[in-house]
Amino acid sequence: MHFEILVEDISGKRMLDMLVPKMIGDSHTFRVISYRGVGRVPKGMRDAKDACKRILLENIPRLMKGYGRTFPSYGDKGAAVIMVCDLDDKCLKTFREELFGILNSCHPKPEARYCIAIEEVEAWLLGDLPAVIAAYPRAKSVILSAYVNDSICGTWEKLADAIYNGGSSALASLGFYAVGEEKSKWAEAISPHMDVSNNKSHSFCYFRRKIQELAGIA
What we know:
10 helices, four-stranded parallel sheet, Rossmann fold, 4 strands
């Protein structure tokens, strides 16, 4: 099977580029496509007016329609799209209803799964503390041990407080782009050490289960 995996930023791409092969092996193909932020589902589920902005949720109606039209060309091999994005401060139930509303409006409908990182994709890194420590041996164990998996707590800030010099306040003071660059560095450093079969983030395990079910592994 071929997988199109949509993520909201480059750090998610760098993480999944390393982790997906650990989940599905080399008998399947995949492509991770990063966007420049998550945005909001358009009102009335209309297509984005300016697709060049590359904001993930604003483009979801257009993308799902396109995948519905093109996936039949994969024939017996099959194809699926998996969208991965942060929950942030959204209501999970309402958010999923919006996303499935978009999917159900597609004719034909693509094979699709929505995987929501709770609260943020950094929760998937924190779901494997041995990997965090392997990448950052001087990480603050008190902060890491106090973290509650998939809790709504300011997840990237928790990770920054544990591994970044000066913590999240120092990093945030450098601005949005500096935060994004640092998140990418964390993903690149931690992901190679991660054991995908032993992660304590429930939202990560949901993603792993869905992609492996589609690949016929689970």
